[in-house]
Amino acid sequence: MKIHAYAKINLTLDILGKRPDGYHDLVMVMQSVGLHDEVSVKLTDNTEITVKSSSALLKDDESNTAFKAAKRFFEYAGITDKGAEIIMEKHIPMEAGMAGGSADAAAVIIALNRLCGTNYSDERLWEIGVRVGADVPFCITGGTMLAKGKGEILTKLPALSDFEKAPVILLCKPDVGVSTGRAYSAVDNCDPTSLIRPDADAMRKALSERSVYGIADHLGNVFEQVLTIEECESIKKCMLAGSALGSCMTGSGTTVFGIFDSEEAANQCAFTLKNTYNNTFVTQATDCGCRIVSEN
Description:
Low-confidence stretches: none
CATH architecture of the largest domain: 2-Layer Sandwich
Number of helices: 10
Largest sheet: 8 strands, mixed
Mean pLDDT: 94
Structural class: alpha+beta
CATH class of the largest domain: Alpha Beta
Order of helices and strands: EEEHEHHHEEEHHHEHHEEHEE
């Protein structure tokens, strides 16, 4: 089975505080976008889980989120006589804040659910996914959603992909990356009263009203306020100068995205950014986190 595993962006991202379990309480409006990895999954009879990736930066061992996803699925389903061969064609950059690893894990869980005939609901698949990573439940379902808790409490929102004129989304990731641990430490060590809190309710209202301008006006990410990354600031300025309605960093970085109401303007801005940043993509919102594209 081959599955497209879609990247995500955060239209809003707020961190309320650290939890006793070491995770953080979050409030996020999340959106799937067209940039995707291609994940192939084959069910085997030898009980072994193998992972291969097109990226030399990823380890093909038990630390890989795709491996963890298969292991957690088999444990949850009580399957002890099967294994999986997983191959990932990577297009989502690493340390980008776009949940590339979580998207691959979600694709594995969806594939095994179909291949093993377990037919679990999304809610049950979320239970498996959250054991792999906080973004995996969202990546299983995707679309446009409000996420709370550590990311596993999900509420469907009016779909950005259903807008009569869906906005064009420009993604740009500089070569520099930020580890998730470093990003959260920066938030933990800052004065919380100094943070301007993103307004998830205002974003929900803008989505309900199908207002692209409202969405652009209420983009927000607390990580931007505690991480000083010159490349991200330069990209954001370029997008806004290139007619983006709004621009923001996604996740813990370092990808910056811009919302455009003109494909021509987005492409022109992308052309400018590609002179400096190879990881530049023009895309749109999608209505799901993973899509099965072939099945044998």
